[in-house]
From TrEMBL:
GO terms for cellular component: membrane. It is found in: Membrane. One of its GO terms (molecular function) is ATP binding. One of its GO terms (biological process) is recognition of pollen. Its main location: membrane. Residues 361-448 form the Apple domain. This is Receptor-like serine/threonine-protein kinase. Keywords: ATP-binding, Disulfide bond, EGF-like domain, Glycoprotein, Kinase, Membrane, Nucleotide-binding, Receptor, Serine/threonine-protein kinase, Signal, Transferase, Transmembrane, Transmembrane helix. Residues 34-162 form the Bulb-type lectin domain. The keyword Ribonucleoprotein does not apply.
Length: 814
């Protein structure tokens, strides 16, 4: 094979080269593979070009799950089980039929892709040396993955190469940089989505204003992330810790920055040619470094930047907000729905959201509307604790009222915010993000009155409207008080709970449950019944039993679920507190509790591994929210499969907060009475010491063992202590073979890398020393593959726990 960089060929070597091509033609005709293309020997159909070392292949490629009539010329790893393209020629102009199309050398010396009508769908678009004959030009695929157009008589004279025209991937040996003379910068551009390789919204390019630095850019216009300047001493970027570790002096990788008068570029080098390493900008704006693990038969992620997906510009599109710790991470704002529900359901949120109802003034052609009518027709919905969207304009306003009036006076105004200065938005709201930091912002989003039927803001209204409304509100309050006194309805115990939800009457709940006839389940505090509200909403109604216990759990649930909201936490919709009746109304979970699917399912009903793994991640995210993102740290204290409910899509929701404990942010631990369930209790409960949120981590770890094995830990303990599943896991992790832990029918669809990760997480969670247990936030990152986890030690006390579990029945302890 002729390689770029060799010396000029003699006439004798030309003959040998033609003989070489002839021999390869014979081989290619039988094997369907070769490493050169000429004008008389094009590539078509199922043929592929294979590099001499066999590392890469080029041919016609179709993305999995994509349209059947779209084919591309691509380079992929020839020795990797998963077809992984690293370069695509015609990403904007796919062809429909590879059998009637061909990749060949055109009469002008260019490499071209022709369809069946001989029309050019793609060309290398280069100029060959004057006087060159197209019969002397060949295309060679090098073992670096570089496709080169060169002369057969002088392979060192490269006419064109794919390394100078990257798509979304940087390979070892590929320069990525900027030509200082022309100002032209190399640019990696993401796919539109995982099934469509056409150019997407995100790209990587050198920073034109700062040396040794590159940028991630949205829509060719807005930089949204940089890893900072390259550190030559470390051989990496300081903001990518995992990269710094990989690029140690004795590492088989090296990353360098080169600068001279003509150019600047980054270069990744791999010392082991058998190692497959790549860096890619993915369709959702993250730059990812990946290495192929032969024993796992999969790609391992060693860095992803930015690490928080919500930091990617416009991750959720227009009129939506992004939250890192919920599933799905993107949600449409109130009054808006997904622009494309199909893409939204598949996890692609970039199309954003659109209004359910157009603003009244926009229906009038955007013209001026009388001020009073605008007050009647438009409202503002407030979103608190957010990072404000981009694109605001500052106007003069002395108060929030004046800011609201300024927005109402302009039909193009979409929203406003006031924080000593007034900011107005006249374009689509982009990049709105949940803000979990110390600084909080609120934004008021303009909606038609029909979208907020029960909310009427008095800000910015004429004085007579405010006075009249106040008198009316006072009258309504007096009537309500008289009605309450007349009906003698008791709401004892609610005076110190900040809640905002629907209040139900006992007789109404009797009606919607058909006198509590359909029982969904029972717990230590009462029973749960199915009900259907008048608007058709199905709900689950927990009827608390026992005056003392019912009141205690009632207050606990109200004080936690009444003030928080997360997609992985059960939603409390309302309550009833009439006399001795204490009831809580929740959203209905069609698939019931997790324990039913883990321990009571038949062989054909076993939850597939992917579903169980996603359930584990969802639970971890819900607990992360409770521990880290609420005003007070909320310790659930009773994490077990019975308290995990599954919705229609098997997304998990943590439920039953009757034993929950609130811990102020000024305190790191709290002393409380022992609570929880045997089999899931952390050692500190038994020792009587003060507890932290790490007791939930322990319970989660014990439950994760059950999610993996589909068997109860205490039942393992009953049969024999040496079969106690956590002990088996800890032992097999040390031996390096967790696959043997599973029954044969459970092994069929298990992702071995995820299984290994889950087992190590579970072992870390159940360490006796709470300081050795990870936080739930770190657990989420490990399970999602963003953080590597070390080998856990074997917890010595598990043997004792196994033996004691064999003598105890599964029961709850208040």
């Amino acid at each position: 094979m002729a390689h770029a960089g060799t010396t000029s060929a003699t006439p004798c070597s030309v003959v040998l080269y033609k003989l070489f091509i002839l021999l390869f033609s014979i081989q290619g005709s039988t094997a369907g593979a070769t490493d050169v293309i000429t004008s008389t020997r094009p590539l078509s159909g199922k043929q592929k070009l294979v590099s001499q070392g066999g590392k890469f292949a080029l041919g016609f490629y179709q993305p999995g799950g994509g349209p059947q009539d779209k084919w591309y010329i691509a380079i992929w790893y020839n020795k990797v089980q998963k077809v992984t393209p690293v370069w695509i020629a015609n990403r904007e102009t796919p062809i429909s039929d590879p059998t009637s199309s061909e990749l060949t050398i055109w009469t002008d010396g260019n490499l071209v892709l022709l369809n069946k009508s001989r029309s050019i769908f793609w060309s290398s678009n280069t100029t060959t040396t004057t006087g060159a004959s197209n019969t002397t030009i060949v295309v060679v695929l090098l073992n670096t993955g570089n496709l080169v157009l060169t002369y057969a008589s002088n392979t060192s004279n490269i006419i064109w190469q794919s390394f100078n025209h990257p798509t979304d991937t940087q390979l070892p040996g590929m320069k990525f940089g900027r030509n200082k003379l022309t100002g032209v910068s190399d640019r990696q551009v993401s796919w539109r989505n995982y099934m469509d390789p056409s150019p997407g919204l995100f790209s990587v390019a050198m920073d034109p204003s700062v040396a040794a630095q590159y940028l991630l850019i949205w829509n060719n216009s807005r930089p949204y992330y940089t890893p900072g300047k390259f550190n030559p001493q470390a051989g990496a970027f300081s903001s990518i810790p995992s990269m710094t570790v990989m690029m140690m002096p004795n590492s088989i990788y090296s990353y360098e920055y080169v600068e001279n008068d003509k150019e600047e570029y980054f270069l990744l080098t791999v010392k082991d040619d058998n190692l497959f390493l790549r860096t890619v900008i993915d369709p959702f704006g993250q730059q990812k470094g990946m290495v192929w693990l032969e024993d796992k038969q999969d790609w391992m992620l060693y860095f992803a930047e930015p690490s928080e997906k919500c930091s990617v510009y416009s991750m959720c599109g227009a009129f939506s907000w992004c939250a890192e710790n919920i599933i799905p991470m993107c949600s449409c704002l109130r009054g808006f729905s997904a622009q494309s529900p199909i893409e939204w359901s598949s996890g692609n949120y970039m199309g954003g959201c659109t209004r359910n109802v157009a603003l009244p003034c926009s229906l009038n052609g955007g013209g001026s509307v009388p001020l009073v009518h605008r007050y009647e027709e438009d409202r503002f919905y407030v979103a608190n604790n957010v990072r404000l969207p981009d694109g605001s304009q500052t106007v003069r306003a002395a108060s929030a009222i004046e800011s609201e009036v300024a927005c109402l006076n302009n039909c193009s105004c979409m929203a406003y915010s006031y924080n000593e200065t007034c900011s107005l938005w006249y374009t689509d709201l982009m990049n709105l993000k949940e803000n979990l930091g110390n600084t909080t912002n609120s934004i008021f989003i303009r909606l038609p009155a029909s979208e907020i039927p029960h909310t009427k803001s008095s800000r910015g209204r004429p004085l007579w409207v405010i006075v009249g409304g106040s008198i009316l509100a006072l009258g309504v309050c007096l009537v309500a008080v008289l009605c309450l006194l007349h009906k003698k309805r008791s709401f004892k115990g609610l005076l110190h709970i900040d809640i905002n939800m629907t209040t139900f009457r006992y007789k109404d709940l009797q009606l919607v449950t058909k006198t509590f006839s359909e029982k969904l389940g029972a717990g230590s505090f009462g029973s749960v019944f199915k009900g259907v509200l008048q608007d058709g909403t199905t709900v689950a109604i927990k009827k608390l039993e026992g005056v003392r216990q019912g009141e205690k759990q009632f207050r606990a649930e109200m004080s936690t679920l009444g003030t928080i909201h997360h997609v992985n936490l059960i939603q409390l919709l309302g309550f009833c507190s009439e006399g001795e009746h204490r009831m809580l109304i929740y959203e209905y979970m069609p698939h019931g509790a997790l324990d039913q699917h883990l321990f009571r399912a038949g062989l054909g009903d076993v939850l597939p591994w992917n579903t169980r793994y996603q359930i584990a991640i969802g639970i971890a995210k819900g607990l992360t929210y409770l521990h880290d993102n609420c005003m007070n740290c909320i310790i659930h204290c009773d994490i077990k499969p019975e308290n995990i409910l599954l919705d229609a899509t098997f997304s998990p929701k943590v439920a039953d907060f009757g034993l929950a404990k609130l811990l102020g942010r000024d305190f790191s631990r709290v002393i409380t009475t022992m609570r929880g369930t045997i089999g899931y209790l952390a050692p500190e409960w038994i020792g009587g010491t003060a507890i932290t949120a790490k007791v939930d981590v322990f319970s989660y770890g014990m439950m994760l063992f059950e999610i993996i094995s589909l068997k109860r830990n205490v039942e393992h303990g009953k049969r024999c202590a040496d079969k106690f599943f956590p002990i088996l896991v800890a032992t097999k992790i040390q031996e390096g073979d967790v696959h043997e832990l599973l029954d044969a029918h459970l092994r069929r669809d298990v992702n071995l890398e995820e299984l290994d990760r889950a087992c190590m997480v579970a072992c870390w969670c159940v360490q006796q020393d709470e300081r050795s247990r990870p936080t739930m936030g770190v657990i989420v990152q490990i399970l999602e593959g963003l953080v590597e986890v070390n080998m856990p030690p074997v917890p010595r006390y598990l043997q004792v726990l196994a033996e004691s579990a064999g003598e105890s029945m599964l029961s709850s302890i208040e």
